[in-house]
């Protein structure tokens, strides 16, 4: 998959295109991309996706924007697994936000990407003041001679699939429900970096996974597995949060204690898959109390994996 950090002024080849933020790449997004790649094969053209960085809601109201489900790197990896040929990451800034919808079509879709067929979600809005919609794109398709189709919302087991629904499930601690909406376990990927080694001092060494996001869609103690280290994902217990026992105002961290594993993995890029929430974060009166609770969490995690294996 080719990734471009801007839309070219003039397209080199025509494209079959979709547009959106694709945060989380849930089942609805996956269905849209399946339709995109099928249309591209049918027309003999490359499939392309246009997305925005930062998320428009982060640009307009950074303090009110929802927590991202996926970082840009995670999103690009998931898109690649869906078979998309090209991704254009368009910087969302004041100039783009003020671009009239008609100019967005002529400058970006026609001139920059040479769209021959466009597939979008039926609620897609674009252009200054969000004035552009599917009706405007239909009119543009007749003028500029490209095909267009809308992708309606996907229902899964009677529920509308959306990034908001995934976020709500994660915030509620219903990790299994989030996985059903995503079609896979929710995950966070990052590089293993040096931490403060508190876990090792307490007898439970942890891998500290670097977080590159301002807000997190979930917090607590979880049963997880970790890929990127061995041939198969390794089971573990993870803590994601601000570690209130160690102090106030600390930045969120993701720490994973891998079961029956004691090898240095500093520098490795790993993916932590969240499988089940054990409990919320809690503040303990002492490190001894924290150590005792970690021991209980690890025991509960072992039971979880044993039950899952036997079940």
Please give a structural write-up:
- Helices cover 33% and strands 26% of the residues.
- Helix 5 crosses helix 6 (134-144).
- The chain is built from 10 helices and 14 strands.
- It folds into 2 domains: 2-156, HUPs (Rossmann fold); 185-310, Riboflavin kinase-like (Elongation Factor Tu (Ef-tu), domain 3), CATH 2.40.30.30.
- It is α/β, with parallel strands linked by helices.
- Strands 1-4-3-2-5-6 form a 6-stranded parallel beta sheet, with helices on both faces. Strands 9-10-13-12-11-14 form a 6-stranded antiparallel beta barrel.
- It has helices spanning 27-43, 56-60, 72-81, 94-97, 101-112, 134-144, 163-171, 175-182, 198-201, 287-310, and strands at residues 2-4, 15-19, 47-53, 86-91, 115-121, 147-151, 155-156, 159-160, 186-193, 207-209, 220-227, 234-241, 253-258, 269-279.
- The radius of gyration is 22 Å and the shape is elongated.
- A hairpin with a 6-residue loop joins strand 11 and strand 12.
- The mean pLDDT is 92.
- The longest helix has 24 residues, at 287-310.
